[in-house]
Amino acid sequence: MKKIIALALVLGVVGAACSPKKIEGTRLVAGTPAYQLAKNLSEVLPLFDPDKNAVLFEAKKFTVTVGDVTEVIQNTMGNAASQLAGRGPAALKSAALQAAVQIGERRLLMAAAEAAKVSVSPEELNKAQAGQYEKAGGEDKFLEMLKTNNVDVAFFKKMVSEEQTIGKYLEANVFNKISVGEDELQKAYAADKTATVRHILLLTQGKPESEIPAIRKKMEDILARANKGEDFAALAREFTEDPGSKENGGLYENFPRGTMVKSFENAAFTVPVGEISGIVETKYGFHILKVENRMKETEPFEKVRAGIEDGLKLAKRADVYEKFVAGLKSKAGFAEVKS
Questions:
Q1: Domains of the chain as residue ranges with CATH
Q2: Does position 210 have pLDDT exceeding 90, yes or no?
Q3: Contacts of 281 (CB under 8 A, 6+ apart)
Q4: Of 138, 242, 303, 323, whose CB has the highest number of CB atoms within 10 Å?
Q5: At what angle do helices 122-135 and 153-173 cross, to 10 degrees?
Q6: Which pTM does this prediction carry?
Q7: Can you tell me whether residue 192 is helix, strand or coil?
């Protein structure tokens, strides 16, 4: 669920399409911030031309246009949206298509929630908004932050409302159907519960594509030195770009499954104890790991059974969500419009 919430906060939401008549995508109005943003981005990628307003995705009941995407970007990123022009045509097009997909998926989920008559009470909405305010030090500070960054307050409130509606719908109609078998419980109980590793990270996040090959080559050289027997902790202190573990020689102790990004976790729990992984790539960059130790559950099965079951159900959510949304998209005829 966190993944779903985070995605909504980054990309924002657009209203559901549930009218029998096909709803056309947003067309930006000249003179608005979103129109000007689209004009600026079109200098890098002509696809963003707000006057042409290209249709990116289409379903039986709605279309998703460049206007929709730009409006979402403007209303969620505010002033920071101008930085997108520096990403280059390929990266900008990829981001636009990804945003268009998210807009379409949100429309389909809202339509499903409305069909199921799911709604959020004013109390639930106020509580959700208060959670956002608290992170900024209070409502006044939060709203001022939105204003300073040219982020639309009404759009933010709509986003929170729809996020709560979709979350409530998924809990009652999708996630409640997840089950865990006895064999899965026993297998999870017998598996390693925590891992202790040292790791070295070379960051690629936010770096230009042109720099990535050189960063990987540097990691290959570090890996070769580690495999020849150089002290891994010393290499980590010298090279890692992870500030949280640098001074400790790259050490992360006794972390459970589900706390690290997936590829990092897979290496931590599959590489034999005492051995060094190959290069592991995550959204942050390139890693190499040395597995120091792993530990199994020491409590009796019945004592931890409920916690294991909850953890397994939580782990299944992303896959269940993706399959459910794929079904909605298939029924709605949702597909990219090829230019």
A1: 2-173+318-336 (1.10.4030), 184-296 (3.10.50.40)
A2: no
A3: 263, 287
A4: 242
A5: 120
A6: 0.73
A7: strand
